[in-house]
Design a protein that fits this description.
alpha/beta; Peroxisomal Thiolase, Chain A, domain 1; 9-stranded mixed sheet; two-stranded antiparallel ribbon; 11 strands; 34% helix; globular
Length: 382
């Protein structure tokens, strides 16, 4: 196999229906999403020769057999889910540029409804089981609530102002076919939503989702011969902090510092752009506070000013800087990071109907995986 020229693009994306509880297996969901992504690219399943499970299950050999494809390259990005789904494009690019694969399928699915759900992620961690859980210091809402409290304390932020993030997400979801939560939400509705872990309300928390997702990466040269305009991968940055996944949520010396302050400069540098060149962003929003912290570390707002940046509809439909234009994890679906990649591709290709942005040339995609982080710059083919 000859070595491909530099430059890669995402050429196909696929999603299943998203539900709070599905009776389908994760294998079945991912197979459906993979077939949809391959068809979206205008390829046949047999043309896929690279497989990257963004995290793990199902094994690539099983998926390849079900698709009728032969694997020339198989790998995993090796990062925690939300970062791995975005950072997987770097692994795909390296394989393509090395001539190890031609068309690479990245896939990830989730059954958030499984027993324990997100609360099971750290349940087997001895440190948490022995020292934190007995005192109620356990579970994602509690962890991120601590981040939010620290942030509000340090920067004098009124927690009620987080409403702007949730309200904007719901407005975008209302314009997005397939979104799980589209019931209108205003500030009064936000303030009426139940408190889950102070200061985070239910509207600040991501959805529980069952579903499958996938995208196809190929060389830019090959992409230009396919059926849809390529979404060019202009830059990628992946970073790991010096904290373990166990420690990052509760033992990090600075609860308001994430890996995006490392990954974003890498992605900008490779793409040859800066924050001021970005038209819109898809930022991992498992909770409203996580989106705010990354918004700042990606350079769109100064430290401590992310909440103020989002006020007055700035990130909502019609706003000056659109963020999470499908409703994100707060209102569209929670398949960590993958929903953001797919939405970036669809916007850049001009396919979003009522939610389509007038200018969608450059997008920053940010994926948070606890102690890992990935930033990708996606552009139109310019």
């Amino acid at each position: 196999m000859s070595v491909a020229p530099r430059g890669t693009a995402i050429v196909g994306v696929g999603e299943t229906e998203f539900k709070r509880r599905s009776d389908r297996t994760i294998d079945d969901l991912i197979l459906e999403a993979s077939r949809a992504a391959i068809a979206d690219a205008g390829l046949e399943p047999g043309e896929i020769d690279g497989f990257i499970p963004a995290v793990e299950h199902p094994n690539a050999d099983q998926l390849a057999l079900a698709l009728g494809a032969t694997r020339a390259f198989t790998s995993k990005p090796g990062y925690v889910a939300g970062a791995g789904t975005v950072g997987a494009v770097l692994t795909a690019r390296l394989a393509i540029e090395a001539g190890l694969a031609t068309n690479v399928l990245v896939y990830f699915g989730m059954k958030g409804s499984d027993e324990g759900g997100p609360y099971s992620y750290h349940a087997e961690d001895p440190a948490k089981a022995g020292f934190e859980m007995p005192f109620g210091w356990y579970g994602q809402p509690v962890y991120f609530a601590a981040w939010a409290q620290r942030y509000c304390h340090d920067y004098g932020v009124d927690p009620d102002d987080f409403a702007s993030v949730a309200v904007a997400a719901r407005a975008w979801a209302a314009l997005s076919p397939g979104a799980q939560k589209t019931t209108p939400l205003d500030t009064a509705g936000y303030l009426a939503s139940p408190m889950i872990a102070t200061p985070l309300r239910s509207a600040d928390c991501c959805l529980i989702s069952d579903g499958g997702t996938a995208y196809v990466v190929t060389s830019l040269e090959r992409a230009r011969s396919l059926r849809r305009p390529p979404a060019v991968v202009a830059g990628v940055g992946v970073a790991s902090t010096n904290q373990t996944l166990s420690a990052i949520f509760s033992q990090n010396p600075d609860l308001t510092m994430l890996g995006s302050h490392i990954s974003a400069p890498k992605a900008y540098r490779e793409a040859g752009v800066g924050p001021s060149d970005v038209d819109f962003a898809q930022i991992y929003d498992c909770f409203s506070i996580s989106m705010i912290l990354q918004l700042e570390e990606l350079g769109f707002a100064a430290r401590g000013e992310g909440v103020a940046f989002c006020q007055d509809g700035r990130i909502a439909p019609g706003g000056a800087f659109p963020v999470n234009t499908n409703g994100g994890h707060l209102s569209y679906a929670y398949i960590p990071g993958m929903n953001h990649v797919i939405e970036a591709v669809r916007q850049v290709r001009g396919e979003r109907g009522d939610a389509q942005l007038a200018r969608a040339e450059v997008c920053a995609v940010a994926g948070l995986g606890g102690n890992d982080h990935a930033t990708m710059i996606v552009t139109a083919d310019r």
